[in-house]
């Protein structure tokens, strides 16, 4: 049996504008994990994909509706087999499980696909690099998102904070000081594809206005990259607040997100914004170690159905970028 994992992710700054070529910053959320196992099956079985959390089972190669969640899993398997040059028939049982909530802005589709690509490739004797995994998962992201920027597959495959610009080589980030984040879930599922499509329609109607907002979001992400490197956490918080205002302008916030964000700020968060596609899903708050508990309690009190506290550790060196390295292979971890 081969088992592999991948984390969830949170976008600190720059979502939506990143689809239009502006920079964004994302971090892995290691408390959330997707897991895939691959086992050899009796001859003649073919490939069966079990998605435990969805209670679904799909026989690879049999007809499937594109709205079925197993559609993206089958596509991920097909892309990975094609990349390896593997010949069918193969007799394998693939099992997926995940603690990353679906359609809540935390990268569930990319996390599951990353775990699946790694487990399948390793099981069949291949060791894809993080870049190769990310590229394969990007193809699945197209099914989930329509026009993905590629930030989700990148931060999840590398499992490191990233400064991401579509089409440019990746830059991983070092934090000058530890970051404490509170992530609160509105409980509202919001498909990324729909929010991204609506923003695109609005951008087509008013390109000048939207381009100016995207420029400002890009400038915020650039300033945040510097603040992160120098450990200027209060500035990072203010930049997150500014980013939220612009996300409200482009109409991807919601009253539920606003309630959680407002509660986090009132309880002492240094900054707070929605995270991911918006319209629902999760918000994120940057907090000091002393306000973590108050902010988490306030976000829960304002209606969050789940609250995660995550710490991004201070990096050992002060430089703000490095050559990406592949994440460690975790083929024995439990889901
Ligand atoms: O909702 P998520 O976690 O899939 O985040 C999507 C981020 C967007 O910028 C809205 C889309 C993209 O492809 O970058």
Task: Characterize the structure shown.
With 335 residues, this protein is of the alpha+beta class. It has 2 domains: 2-172, 2-Layer Sandwich (Ribosomal Protein S5, domain 2); 179-312, GHMP kinase, C-terminal domain (Alpha-Beta Plaits), CATH 3.30.70. Helix content is 40%, strand content 22%. It has helices spanning 69-84, 108-123, 130-145, 151-158, 192-205, 207-230, 233-249, 255-266, 292-301, and strands at 2-13, 24-40, 47-51, 56-59, 92-98, 162-164, 171-172, 179-185, 271-275, 282-287, 306-312. The strands form 2 sheets. Strands 1, 2, 3, 4, 5, 6 and 7 form a 7-stranded mixed beta sheet that branches. Helix 2 packs across helix 3 (130-145) and helix 5 (192-205) crosses helix 6. The protein starts with a strand and ends in a 23-residue tail after the last strand. Bound molecules: (3R)-3-hydroxy-3-methyl-5-(phosphonooxy)pentanoic acid. (3R)-3-hydroxy-3-methyl-5-(phosphonooxy)pentanoic acid binds at residues 11, 15-16, 18-19, 105, 107, 145, 148-149, 151-152, 192, 196, 276-277.
């Amino acid at each position: 049996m081969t088992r592999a994992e991948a984390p969830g992710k949170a976008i600190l700054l720059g979502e939506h504008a990143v689809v239009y070529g502006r920079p964004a910053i994302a971090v892995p959320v290691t408390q959330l994990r997707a897991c895939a196992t691959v086992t050899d099956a009796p001859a003649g079985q073919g490939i069966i994909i079990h998605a435990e959390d969805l209670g679904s089972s799909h026989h690879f190669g049999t007809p499937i509706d594109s709205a079925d969640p197993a559609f993206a899993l089958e596509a991920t398997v097909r892309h990975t087999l094609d990349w390896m040059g593997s010949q069918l028939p193969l007799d394998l049982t693939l099992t997926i499980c995940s603690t990353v909530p679906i359609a809540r802005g935390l990268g569930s589709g990319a996390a599951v696909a990353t775990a699946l690509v790694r487990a399948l490739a390793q099981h069949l004797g291949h060791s894809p690099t993080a870049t190769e995994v990310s590229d394969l998962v990007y193809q699945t992201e197209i099914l989930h998102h329509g026009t993905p920027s590629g930030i989700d597959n990148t931060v999840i495959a590398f499992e490191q904070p990233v400064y991401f610009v579509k089409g440019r080589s990746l830059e991983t980030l070092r934090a000058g000081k530890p970051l404490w984040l509170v992530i609160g879930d509105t409980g509202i599922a919001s498909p990324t594809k729909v929010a991204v499509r609506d923003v695109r329609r609005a951008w087509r109607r008013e390109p000048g206005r939207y381009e100016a907002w995207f420029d400002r979001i890009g400038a915020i992400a650039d300033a945040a990259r510097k603040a992160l490197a120098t450990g200027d956490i209060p500035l990072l918080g203010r930049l997150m607040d500014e980013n939220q205002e612009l996300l409200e302008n482009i109409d991807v916030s919601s009253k539920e997100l606003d309630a959680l964000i407002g509660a986090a700020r009132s309880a002492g968060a240094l900054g707070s914004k929605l995270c991911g596609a918006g319209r629902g899903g999760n918000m994120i708050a940057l907090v000091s170690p002393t306000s973590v508990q108050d902010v988490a309690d306030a976000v829960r009190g304002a209606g969050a159905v789940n609250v995660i506290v995550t710490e991004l550790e201070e990096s050992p060196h002060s430089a703000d970028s490095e050559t990406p390295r592949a994440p460690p292979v975790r083929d024995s971890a439990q889901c």
